[in-house]
Amino acid sequence: MNIAVISIIHEPWGGSEELWSATAKIALQNGHNIIHSSAVNGNSHPKIKILLDFGMQQVVRQQYVPDSKPLLIRAITKRLYFIKEIFINRFSQLNKNNLDAVLYVGTTYSIANDYDLILLAKKKNVPLYINCQLNYEDNFNISENQKQKITDAFENAEKVFFVSDRNRQVAFKQLGGNFPNTAVIRNPVNMASTDYIPYPTKNASIQMAMVGNLVTSHKGQDLIFKLLGEEKWRQRDWHLNIYGTGMDEKYLKELVENLHLENKTTFHGRVSNIASIWLKNHILLMPSHMEGMPLAVVEAMICGRPSVVTDVGGHTEWITDGKEGFVAAAASVVSLAKTMEICWEQKEHWEKMGKAAHEKALKLYDPQPGKTLLKMITQKNCS
């Protein structure tokens, strides 16, 4: 089979890329062809390099203009791309391949901005699979025209995959109807072992971790900094470890300095060995504004650590408040302050909660989601 994978992220890599890349690796090993269409050149990322070594083809769409470019240059370039797309389908490079399936990886509604792909799939009569990695619950703002495009895309897709049932149900509500061709699929975990990792000593300072891309509009790390900057929290014995990189790294480091939290916060950058994170940390903090189902939460649970999360995405499908972790009602300093206070008062129970999280995660996760997704795609082609 010739399978095209469409990525929409504007960085070389992100959590949304884990599922399709796992699927692509298995597909390539089994003799299928993978053509990856990306908005940016991701050849520098190790996982992309591995897939290229396995024989994956990669094409880069000329549509993204980095924020680092001067404002005038960005405006002119975007306008030129817009004019170009009036005459040339941005996915026209895929025309060169005799495709058997197309897998689109984006947010629940990003397909409205990539409707050229729908037109191409219809023209070529190629089955389209949509992988929705994220949904917007509070900031849902699309026009009727966009809504119609999304509905059309979902109705014409062979299958629409969500990474949490909450995302799926929210989409049904926002779009005003159910879609029978939907399913929930898991993302892969980045660990060689799913064994419980012994809980760190309780005699040292409490080590709290935030794991994920440093993008505050998504992950809400700044909310935690503002909370921990309060005098009550300053007096407590804790250290915050930040794992990840992203566009807001500079802003977050400046915020730490402004709040005088330098001695209680460490930025570790991106860490590939997930187990090493949980050898030293007692709890995960995930104050997200929006989510699908973050790998960082699943991986923390598998390692045997409780989490503080917000009530978005699939969080409450994995975590019951007070059992496997703590759930804040909203991504706000006020809501998180209440939840974090309860959490701190119950820190003697964290180890027990972590063990409960480990047991629940092992029941919910898919050990081979790439294989699961590939089977769904290839079964259609072979039927």
Structural class: alpha/beta
Individual helix count = 16
CATH topology of the largest domain: Rossmann fold
The CATH H-level superfamily of the largest domain is Glycogen Phosphorylase B
| Highest CATH level, the class of the largest domain | Alpha Beta
Distance between termini? 13 Å
Overall body shape: globular
Let me know the number of strands. 13
One letter per element, helices H and strands E, the order comes to EHEHEHEHEHEHEEHHHEHEHEHEHEHHH
CATH architecture of the largest domain: 3-Layer(aba) Sandwich
Radius of gyration, taken over Cα atoms and rounded to an integer in Å: 21 Å
> Could you name the ranges where pLDDT drops below 50 across 5 or more consecutive residues?
77-87
Give the percentage of residues in beta strands. Answer: 15-25%
Largest sheet: 7 strands, parallel
* Number of separate domains: 2
User: How confident overall, as mean pLDDT?
Assistant: 90
- Largest sheet strand order: 3-2-1-4-5-6-7
| Helix content bin | 40-55%
